[in-house]
């Protein structure tokens, strides 16, 4: 067994970059009237500090970061986790710990103390409360913290961070390009290692092995589904169905490298695709082109949606319908989370800025004759891009113009 | 590239078993004075319904399950997810959906309606509020639901589910045994594929490839760390250090199969281990034996802790100290979550019942001479067991009596 070594792989985010993030966030906090941020979720924690370890999988022990309006963050960690911080966030000096699990007080009083000490002129603390956020601690403990810091008020600080995180640095873009490229290679090679008779589970295992061999680090997300003449849904994990002639197969994956994600898919036909599948593939391929071209600074996510929706509507012989927008969006932000704001949706309207990263993800529903009448299928395409003055620049390697075939 | 097919692998949990879980939970709800449960987290959702898809990685779209005091659950899902439910939880008929993301109302009003309709004589709803729980939706939306269902009161219903989930069915134990066995094989083969000069990252990739080849489905957790004469901490992901003579290497992994986890580790010496490492390995091996023997119905998690702590204290030449219990516990529950209650801890005291599943996880700190003085190391051992009338029965294959060596 061999894995590829890749000495040219880009480095993880540096402590200097974390320090400059902190300065930028603190300036924005003051504008937003926040004395401190109270952070509990893996991606925000990592964005601010660099803290990196698999421990977030263990939900018994929460971990906390308090960022005051000036100065370095305070980390409140279960004992043992200090070594992770010294190794992955060595620039942070103030680490407080408790022996966990302690059902009486799992870090709550340490958080209250750190938040009270950060009190400033605003009287407000930004927590992970709003849209698309997650508090990664028991809600009962969160409410205890809220009560314990009164009269300091907890308001949403997550959306402020999300909007800052939308725009990536050169180091972040390099990491995302790296993971997009290695996963592109694993997809391009798929017809050489997946074959008729393989179950979806076997194909999923082989694909993951390819990703790992090429340097992918974590594969938290893998769709792998197939069906005669098309698949019914983009959200299914692998099952026991074995590939046979006439099947359409999709894999859609979120792979991370030094914490940064790709999120894209590839479609394959087992044997020659039907005319209906060719038509759908052609439509989503062209819709992707239109979405990439529309993704320019100053335009909006709703424009990126519309550019794709027009191609899809034409292929369906319909008018664009801003109300009935299917699965809600045609792509989204990406970074330290696989799915970040914004959404390429008619109701989003985020203005695009240079160095934002997006997925472009059109899908076309179509019908095939099934044994009990017409069956609804969908074909979804996806690429990852970064916004440049000239439009979207691919981070992935573009999917083939014609649908790849598993012979 | 080949992956092993395994026709004797146990099946996923059946709809019949989900139905009987629902009946048992509903009986307990009535005892606890709960009219309904409001469920948002992947593992509780799957435990009650069978709903299974990779979509939980996407935090933009939450999903909800309302379990009334009698009758089937109601699923509130983002549009598109209905197909997942029909495929993986086909026995559930009442599915309500909305087009997500919708920042104005991401399923909140649908949840409020379903919860109000479940109102019964108790006036209380069990939510995921307490110890070791996670609400997997934005807290702002959770508070809107809480306000919207008033005067119905939201109280913790998670701990009730957790305690029921501690005791596993034969089908659950078969799935856990299956994943423990295949990961045991990947660990046993490690000295044949990991070698001096490999980086920790390369070893981690090779190990994951072995797990996937042998039928492991997901690998959300992988510790892989090493150091001269010992490693400093059990919680580090793989780094760039290359294995050399005198290193001690640990891999600790949470792998899942049909949703059920193993969580155990193996230690390796690169070349012959030092006397200090041999001493530590012998102590944690014997502490594990003691923990397994102590894990009998009617005894408590604190007894399982004490049996291990006595061996460790003796090896350190110390008295057992119930206050200073290191990392807080020596093992924990396991199932659909990698770390579930209870904890093998002096402050836990959960009474053991036949068919509970536990990890037995002793660790021994020790010191070696470093270039700047004594360096603290730790050696951690771990096995997974099921409680039987005769004591703990291994689900894993027991680690070797002598520390395995990478030549």
- The shape of chain A, in one word, is globular
| Largest interface pair | A-B, 80 and 80 residues
Could you tell me the strand content of chain A as a percent range? 15-25%
Radius of gyration of chain A: 23 Å
Q: How are strands sequenced across the largest beta sheet of chain A?
A: 4-3-2-1-5-6
**Cα end-to-end separation of chain A:** 26 Å
Q: Helix amount of chain A, in percent?
A: 25-40%
Oligomerization status of the protein chains: homodimer
Kindly name the structural category of chain A: alpha/beta
Task: Round the mean pLDDT of chain A to the nearest integer and report it.
Answer: 96
CATH structural fold name of the largest domain in chain A: Creatine Amidinohydrolase
> How many domains of chain A, as an integer?
2
- What is the N-to-C succession of helices and strands of chain A? HEHEEHEHEHEHHHHEEEHHEEEEEEEE
According to DSSP, the number of beta strands of chain A is 17
Q: How would you describe what is shown here?
A:
- Chain A has two domains: 15-165, Creatine Amidinohydrolase, Chain A, domain 1 (3-Layer(aba) Sandwich); 167-406, Creatine Amidinohydrolase (Alpha-Beta Complex), CATH 3.90.230.
- In chain A, 33% of the residues lie in helices and 24% in strands.
- The first copy, chain A, has helices at residues 15-32, 42-49, 82-88, 108-117, 139-148, 158-166, 170-188, 190-193, 200-213, 275-294, 301-316; strands at 36-39, 64-68, 74-78, 95-98, 124-127, 153-156, 218-228, 247-257, 260-270, 332-333, 340-343, 357-360, 363-370, 373-380, 383-388, 391-394, 405-406.
- In chain A, the strands form five sheets. In chain A, strands 4-3-2-1-5-6 form a six-stranded mixed sheet. Chain A has a four-stranded mixed sheet with strand order 7-8-9-17. Chain A has a three-stranded antiparallel sheet with strand order 12-15-16, sandwiched between helices.
- In chain A, helix 4 (108-117) packs parallel to helix 5 (139-148), helix 7 crosses helix 9 (200-213) and helix 10 (275-294) runs antiparallel to helix 11 (301-316).
- Chain A starts with 14 loop residues before the first helix and ends with a strand.
- Chains A and B meet through helix 3, helix 5, helix 9 and strand 7 of A and helix 3, helix 5, helix 9 and strand 7 of B.
């Amino acid at each position: 067994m061999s894995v590829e070594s890749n000495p040219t792989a880009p480095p993880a985010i540096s402590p200097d970059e974390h320090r400059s993030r902190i300065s930028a966030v603190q300036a924005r906090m003051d504008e937003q009237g926040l004395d401190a941020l109270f952070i509990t979720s893996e991606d925000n924690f990592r964005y601010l500090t660099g803290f990196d370890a698999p421990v977030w999988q263990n939900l018994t022990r929460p971990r906390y970061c308090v960022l005051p309006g000036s100065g370095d963050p305070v980390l409140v960690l279960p004992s043992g986790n200090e070594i992770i911080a010294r190794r992955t966030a060595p620039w942070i000096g103030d680490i407080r710990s408790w022996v966990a699990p302690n059902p009486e007080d799992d870090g709550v009083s340490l958080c209250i103390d750190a938040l009270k000490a950060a009190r400033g002129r605003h009287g407000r603390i930004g927590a992970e409360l709003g849209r698309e956020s997650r508090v990664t601690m028991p809600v009962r403990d969160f409410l205890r913290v809220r009560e314990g810091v009164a009269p300091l008020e907890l308001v949403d600080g997550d959306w402020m961070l999300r909007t800052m995180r939308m725009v990536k640095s050169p180091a972040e873009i390099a990491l995302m390009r790296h993971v997009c490229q290695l996963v592109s290679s694993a997809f391009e090679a798929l017809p050489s290692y997946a074959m008729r008779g393989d179950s979806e589970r076997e194909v999923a295992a082989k694909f993951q092995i390819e990703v790992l061999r090429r340097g992918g680090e974590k594969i938290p997300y893998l769709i792998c589904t197939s069906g005669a003449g098309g698949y019914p849904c983009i959200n299914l994990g692998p099952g026991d169905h074995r590939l046979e002639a006439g099947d359409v197969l999709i894999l859609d994956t979120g792979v991370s490298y030094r914490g940064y994600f790709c999120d894209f898919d590839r479609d394959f036909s087992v044997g020659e695709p039907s005319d209906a599948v060719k038509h759908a593939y052609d439509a989503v391929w062209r819709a992707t082109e239109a979405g990439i071209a529309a993704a320019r600074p100053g335009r909006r996510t709703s424009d990126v949606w519309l550019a794709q929706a027009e191609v899809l509507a034409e292929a369906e012989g319909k008018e664009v319908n801003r109300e009935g927008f299917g699965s809600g969006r045609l792509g989204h932000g990406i970074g330290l989370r696989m799915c970040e704001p914004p959404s390429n949706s008619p109701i989003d309207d985020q203005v695009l800025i240079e160095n934002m990263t997006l997925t472009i993800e059109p899908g076309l529903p179509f019908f095939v004759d099934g044994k009990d009448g017409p069956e609804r299928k969908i074909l979804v395409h996806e690429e990852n891009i970064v916004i440049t003055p000239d439009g979207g620049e691919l981070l992935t390697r573009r999917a083939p113009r014609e649908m790849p075939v598993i012979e």
